[in-house]
Amino acid sequence: MIGSAGAILSVRRICKTFGPVRVLHDVDFDLNAGAVHALVGENGAGKTTLARIIAGTHRDDGGGMTLNGQSYRPAGRTDAQRRGVRMVMQELNLFPTLTVAENIFLEDLPRRFGVINYRLLHRRAEELMAAIGLRDLAVDEPVGNLTVGSRQMVEIAAGLSQDCRLLILDEPTASLTDRETCLLFDQIRRLRARGVAMLYISHRMQEIKQIADTVTVLRDGRIISTHAIDTLTVEEIVNRMVGREISHAPAARTAAKGRVALRVENLCAGPRVQNISFDLHKGEVLGLAGLIGAGRTETVRAIFGADRLTSGRIYLGETAKHVRIRSPRDAIAHGIALIPEDRKEQGLFLPLGVDRNIAVPNLSRLSCAGIISPAAERTLARRHIDTGAIKCAAPDQPAETLSGGNQQKVVIAKWLARDCDVLIFDEPTRGIDVGAKFEIYAMMADLAARGKALIVVSSDLRELMAICDRIAVLSDGCLAATFSRNAFSEQTINAAAFSRHTATFRTQGAAG
Amino acid sequence: MNNSHRRIPAWLTDYLGMAGALGLLLLIFGLSTENFFSAATFGTIANQIPDTTIMAVGMTWVLIIAGIDLSVGSVMALSGAVLGVALARFGIPLPVAVVACLLVGLLCGLASGLIVVAWSLPSFIVTLGMMEIARGATYLVTQSRTLYVSDRLEMITDTTLLGLSAPFLLAVLIVLVAQFVLSMTVFGRHMVAVGTNETAARLSGIAVRRVRLAVFAVSGLLCGVAALINTARYQANPNNGIGMELQVIAAVVIGGTSLMGGRGSVVSTFFGVLIIKVLGTGLAQTGAQEPTKRLVTGCVIIAAVVLDYYRRRLRKTGTEAAQ
Ligand SMILES: Nc1ncnc2c1ncn2[C@@H]1O[C@H](COP(=O)(O)OP(=O)(O)OP(=O)(O)O)[C@@H](O)[C@H]1O
Ligand SMILES: [Mg+2]
Predict the structure, then answer these.
(1) Which residues of A touch B318 (CB under 8 A)?
(2) Spatial distance between the Cα atoms of A102 and A153, rounded to a whole number of angstroms
(3) Which of A44, A177, B60, B91 could share a disulfide with A403, CB 3.0–4.6 Å?
(4) pTM score of the predicted model
């Protein structure tokens, strides 16, 4: 176990198995001080597992590590933190009932006479959040009330709250928009200048080119190669990840506009949804863009009946029938599906198997007189595991033990199995690898071609520009503008996204 | 690597484990007391099982939807009291009295369920209230006196089939039906979904409130059924079923059903009831007094949940290191 010169952390022949499944095979690699080391690979390649072994939340079953030349085998997360290793988790691990500030400084709450000093706590939290561009979030808000994007920012803030020598970031930008990503990168550069080593896991290749110094490719639990970032193109990285060539071009969309499938009129629901109106046509893909907190998720939740409407009307189908949607159950009965953004809290039944998860919204079709046909259930699960390329050891593998991207695929499969007319995707590719992303785009194009109407919320503007016929931009809870395909441009869409936010916010965003 | 553990279904190993524990208990008592293996002993045990089992079935469902029902003992007493009063004081025909008894249980369960879903309250506190209400009502209805009606209900206790009493057979039947509903029907799947992740269940289009309400109603109705058997055996005594909710919960938990919701089995609950009852009767035969009995039972409950913890860790092959 000899670490190479200059390496802060050396990993040697690390192995990990879960039951019968071998996830990591003799992994070797080094992290250097003052460098950002990207780790890429397909969903289920073992990136998170490796990161968790370094951060002390998993135990390896063979091999060894050295940290600063000393043998390193953390007994747990706190042990790793004591040695200066911290991790920002892919699956958000915050306490929903505690406030933003409490979550950020949980391990080191400022105290006076044994009582938490809230003044100091809130001041420190505000400073930190301003640094990463979360100025508009109240630090005393319970984390449970935040959307996934904001929660991810809080998770990042918690990771940055304490000094460390090695920081692991597991898909930190999966639900961040460009503005927040830029601010995060400023922080990463600052840490790099201070000599902190960083392990950066992401499926967004552009970001990796932008921020990383070295890139290591992991495939099926084995290290394929490590290169300086400038020596590889994005295509080369992706080909190494999947081990074959993949077609990049998203299926060309011919917008054959059909009749109106969904009309929303003056929708209001809480402070983040104000007077939203739009039409969605059959065969159309409508994108919803906007900054974090602009009300994209809240808008689609209101349409789906997950949150209460304060006013507004929803019309459905060719006859534009006025429908009252009081609950998700009503929405589903009217042929609307929502793939929620937070897979862990809203999409999955974590302890249940993949097959059971896929079956839940489809039980009426899988049963006769209320009795489920196990054969039909198995067939459905098998089909969607195959077509959705869900990597699992067996159909009944508990969803909680799947990799993040594969969990996301299960949530999508669950709703595709049901034949809905209006499909709303909230961050559908969050945590999905490059190859699978294109499969999802193709699947969406296919749905649209079959006359379905799609709404896609995404924080990745390039993704929206690639797959949508129209993009509606929300800004501070209002519909700021709508662009049709020939008018797409990053600049104008971003400008619209900022248009209604406050002046301070705008200058800050411009700086980022 | 180890492929064999994939082929034996998890539920089978669970049942075998429970049966093994029961067998061990029987063996211990058989060796330590002279006439444990006698018709009388098993008669005693068999008499105590049916009403507890029937209530434990309802409790299993309630725990699976991440609720709890503390009112079962009192609701059973109230149903029994109505049965007793109807027969002894008003001379109402037996079938009508039986229907009234079942209806009282059902209404109590519905009331708890409605309050729980209407205001999204924790069922612990709502059913704690219902426990007091039903007990109070029992004293009022019976005027705090025992009504002697078991001779009118002889047909319940005296009917036998293949040497097994009707209540015992009824309990087994209810266990089987409830297990079937839980594992094979849409409603059963909805219960598990609601207990596992209520938000995801709602967003999947499950009528969460309706499922909750139905489960509490069933729990109440089963208390009514248990009341028929209990009254036939012990008269309509206003003090019937005091503390029974704890025994029922203990049996369900020994059967491996999770208090956190989403996981449980009715058949395992039945084993849990058998273990509790064999333990009680066996200890009594060794001459143990009430204090010892309670001490030992308490230890068994704790041992059962600790065992369950390790069993789940083993099954969840991914061993998560300490947080
Ligand atoms: N606790 C567990 N039990 C069983 N299998 C597990 C467990 N945790 C992870 N796995 C398996 O290990 C493999 C690697 O998972 P990991 O989370 O490391 O992937 P990943 O590279 O981070 O993927 P993603 O890009 O989707 O996040 C997956 O196939 C997953 O199913
Ligand atoms: Mg991962």
Answers:
(1) 18-19, 401
(2) 14
(3) A44
(4) 0.88
